[in-house]
Fold this sequence. Notes:
The complex is a heterodimer. Chain A is 35% helix and 24% strand. Chain A has a single domain (19-120, 148-204), classed as Alpha-Beta Complex (5'-nucleotidase,  domain 2), CATH 3.90.780.10. Chain A is globular. The longest helix of chain A has 18 residues, at 37-54. By secondary structure, chain A is of the alpha+beta class. Chain A has seven helices and ten strands. Chain B has a single domain (35-288), classed as Purple Acid Phosphatase, chain A, domain 2 (4-Layer Sandwich). A six-stranded mixed beta sheet of chain B has the order 7-8-10-11-13-12. In chain B, strands 2-1-14-15 form a four-stranded mixed beta sheet. The model of chain B is unreliable at 1-10 (pLDDT under 50). At the A-B interface, helix 1, helix 2, strand 9 and helix 6 of A face helix 3, helix 4 and helix 5 of B.
Amino acid sequence: MDAYLAPYAAKIKASFGQPLVQAPQGLYRGRRGEENLLGYWVADTMRAAAAKATGDPIPFAITNAGGLRANLRVGMLKVEDIYDVMPFENEVVIIQLTGSQIIQVVREGLLHEGGEPCSGVRAELSGTPGRTAFHVTWTDGKPIDPAATYRVATTDYLYEGGGRMRTLSRGRGLIRTGLTLRQVLLDRCAELAKAGQPLLPPAPGRYVIPPALQEALRERELHF
Amino acid sequence: MERRDFLATLGAAAAVSALPLRAADEAGASGRITLLHTNDTHSHIEPFGPGNGALSGRGGVARRATLIKRLRASVGSSLLLDAGDTFQGTPFFNMYKGRLDYRLMRMMGYEATTLGNHDFDNGVDMLVAAMESMERMNHPNAPFAFINCNFDFKGAPHLEKRMRPYMVREFPGMKVGITGVGVAFDGLVAPQNHLGVAWRDPYESLNPVVKHLREKEKVDLVVVLSHLGYQMDGPFDDLRLPAHVPGVDAVIGGHTHTFLDAPVRVPQAMGETLVFQVGWAGVNLGRMDFAVAHGEVRASGGLSMPVEA
């Protein structure tokens, strides 16, 4: 069995050095409280992959910054760079959350981790460290219906209670896509390269936090 | 082999011959069988690397093959079965499109599997190509069977001719009937990936098959390979199945990646059903033992065995 497998495994190992796609600006995680553009790309990619896998729209995706273990530096990315970003076998899963649970997930990510990488929504903090207002809408500014149920893409790790966004574990109707997060990133890179396009970071603006509040958030002194 | 694995293997090997049959049964139509099984192996051909929590260092087909070989050498009659979702999960699937997974299963000596939702991930044609690749390989083991009774394959003739609703295997003193059911496609498999395949109510599909196996084929033991899931929000899952489909002795489950240490006994109209599932990724091998006499299960047991170095 080992002898039969060896050439198949060797071919996969050899693929680690293969060029994937150009990243002319790189994609970086940023410091705590700063916008995590690498994480935004990961969340966008998992959301699109979940929608493609099931044929249903997925309005929201969230992952955890702590699971992304490297930046993507400027230049031609290789397969192993994606393995460095995502060395874990975490799977993209789809759950159902109510609008108010989605808002709570974003809040938990902000309070505990300074804002976790997400896709589909825009969160804004305003006011002062003593009196902070928290507001979340869909990306286009439309309100999230707190009572409606939405499909959410995340990882099995977060759904199973890893990380500190505990409300994710309250998701219902679990669907396992069978796709590892790493695989959907690899697939997206290959798709861009095939289309002759570079990998560019998504635009910032998903977490809008005034500098004074950013400081308080980093020090975990905010309550909202 | 780790001590824990060795002890589990030894304990299980001892269990099958210890399953009691009445003295009167031993002389007549009676027999014992061991079902070895996996589910949701998801292209985990190599063991998990470090950094994967409790799964680190576990699994791998070479070790699974070794464990299977040793167990089959130490028990009497046996079947090696799988509950689906062989595909998707590692670069091995992306590069070899499930062909390698199915070929390895034939090399390990599987007799039958069913289809999970992820086995449709590359569409029906790629699924058929993987089946063909396994059937055409030159190997002393026979090709294994693909079993399902609740998908209507009429619109996908190349797949239909490779599927069967059930199969019967005869062993000394007993006959075993095996059927299979799959989870609904809706929201799990994109429509273009199951073109020509329609899902039907698994309980309604199973009942006539189980009846046929018992009454026409005269099997002594009925086994269902289920990719419905252990416990689901909806009406269809392995725990609810026995109440709707009496006459099933064993459900080899999958889909929910549920780690059970031993089969769960669910009472039903004709006795009880052993419902089992052993996690995923080939980190465990399941085992259920049955002692059967005159068409009835007289004793049964089972356990999950770790696949480790």
